[in-house]
């Protein structure tokens, strides 16, 4: 018989409200909504798509950094990837991290870590005490094989994006890769526009911004779940 899955720390009912031994449940709709997944189908399709793209680049003993991990949309798939030696995901929303620690970390063989940082975001964490433009990613220099940000730069203003790109460059191993997505519904006349609700970047400007912060294009992956997606590496 299925058992209702209530998180005792938050009273949050898992969706679809069932737990099976050894299986990562689905997060509640409130957490899925915060990562832009209005339906469970969307949540799973997007997570699976990102997992497939990333898994092509995850070699044995890989270290993975999930920038803006949300409620584990991609992490739930990576948790069963035998090549992931270490995974670190971080987010500004504490409820996301609490859920991931409660339901994903215990089923990931002890090598998944989820961290909350109180980074200021007018949209997602208006009381935050840490400036995104000064934030340091939780990874040593040149230690990460695969970094990714699924629909993070779609909500990050330009000064903060520059800092984050610089941090990606700092933590990537020399042969490491980063998979990053943007919205691109803008032009050269307005190359970086929007609020944290939605940011759009002109693709050539995005690549110049990445280059100024130590990253070079390895492959333009094109559309991935409605966002323009790029595979970048450290500039040689």
Report what the structure shows.
The chain is of the alpha/beta class. The protein has a single domain (29-234), classed as 3-Layer(aba) Sandwich (Rossmann fold). It is built from six helices and nine strands. The chain has helices at 29-34, 40-55, 75-78, 94-103, 158-171, 203-212, and strands at residues 62-67, 84-91, 112-116, 144-149, 172-182, 192-195, 198-201, 215-224, 227-234. Strands 3-2-1-4-5-9-8 form a seven-stranded mixed beta sheet, sandwiched between helices. Strands 6-7 form a two-stranded antiparallel ribbon. Strand 4, helix 5 and strand 5 (172-182) form a beta-alpha-beta unit. The termini are far apart. 40% of the residues are buried.
Write the layout of secondary structure elements.
Elements: H1 29-34, H2 40-55, E1 62-67, H3 75-78, E2 84-91, H4 94-103, E3 112-116, E4 144-149, H5 158-171, E5 172-182, E6 192-195, E7 198-201, H6 203-212, E8 215-224, E9 227-234
Parallel strand pairs: 1-2, 1-4, 2-3, 4-5
Antiparallel strand pairs: 5-9, 6-7, 8-9
Sum this structure up briefly.
The protein is of the alpha/beta class.
CATH topology: Rossmann fold
Q: What portion of residues is helical?
A: 25-40%
Structure classification: alpha/beta
Q: What topology, given as strand order, has the largest sheet? A: 3-2-1-4-5-9-8
The run of helices and strands is: HHEHEHEEHEEEHEE
- Looking at the overall shape, the CATH architecture is 3-Layer(aba) Sandwich
What's the assembly state of these chains? single chain
Instruction: Please identify which CATH superfamily we are dealing with.
Output: Vaccinia Virus protein VP39
